[in-house]
TrEMBL record:
Name of a matching Pfam family: Response_reg
Organism: Dyella marensis
One example GO MF annotation: DNA binding
Record-given protein name: Two-component system, NarL family, captular synthesis response regulator RcsB
GO annotation terms (biological process): phosphorelay signal transduction system; regulation of DNA-templated transcription
Organism taxonomic ancestry: Bacteria, Pseudomonadati, Pseudomonadota, Gammaproteobacteria, Lysobacterales
Length: 225
């Protein structure tokens, strides 16, 4: 599944009197309803749309002005890969703020999200009252990270891995199995296993345990766009 290029209305210049227009994307209905319920109690924001798939979010962005999107990059298996979605949104809507809201808090993953164009990361286990601050800081041009992730910084060195090898490593760090990764990207089990093995050789590691122990160092191999 690929993301076609699309254009939406230009973002209107904000004034202190205008609430921040927020769109939400999460494939879990319970989480989505909780976010909507909480944000409706925050006077500084207005929820202009909530979505369970990227297709409806993209359709709304093409028609409705939005200031910030709160999204979980780990979407349903039949939806877009979250990294690809963030990258495409950043290219199409350079002024749009993107705050990732996820339970996957690995340093490597968060760094890659920032690398692809996210403006911040909010962990799902954080207190709900902290979300207003996160939105405000992102809208002010800051990169928001929870305290336990403040050591995350963008990668600076070239990556020895190919884009597809990075996809496999990132998904594996998120807890996905070889078969799940193969299904997500419509590749064979053999292809995924080979890409994982090749990535391990390039990174100089021999086991899954080594990968998880050096997840922060692995990030240094991520290429800059």
């Amino acid at each position: 599944m690929t993301l076609s290029m699309y254009r939406g209305p230009a973002l209107a210049r904000k004034s202190p009197r205008n609430p921040i227009r927020v769109a939400l994307l999460d494939d879990h209905e319970f989480i989505l309803k909780g976010l909507v319920s909480h944000l409706r109690q925050v006077s500084a924001v207005t929820v202009v749309g909530s979505h369970r798939c990227s297709r409806t979010l993209r359709a709304m962005l093409a028609e409705t002005p939005v200031d910030i999107v709160l999204l979980d990059y780990s979407l349903a298996s039949d939806d877009l890969d979250g990294m690809a979605l963030i990258k495409a949104l950043r290219l199409r809507y350079p002024e749009l703020r993107i705050l990732v809201v996820s339970g996957h808090c690995q340093h490597v993953t968060v760094n890659m999200l920032l690398r692809e164009g996210a403006n911040g990361f909010f962990a799902k286990h954080q207190e709900a009252v902290e979300m207003a601050e996160a939105i405000t800081r992102v809208m002010a041009g800051e990169t928001y990270l929870p305290p336990f992730l403040t050591a995350v910084t963008p990668a600076r060195r070239s990556s020895p891995l190919s884009p597809r090898e990075w996809e496999v490593i990132r998904c594996f760090l998120d807890g996905m199995s070889v078969s799940q990764i193969a299904a997500k990207f419509n590749r064979s089990l053999k292809t995924i296993s080979t890409q994982k093995s090749t990535a391990y050789k390039k990174l100089g590691i021999q086991s899954d345990a080594e990968l998880f122990k050096m997840r922060d160092q692995v990030l240094q191999a991520r290429s800059m766009a």
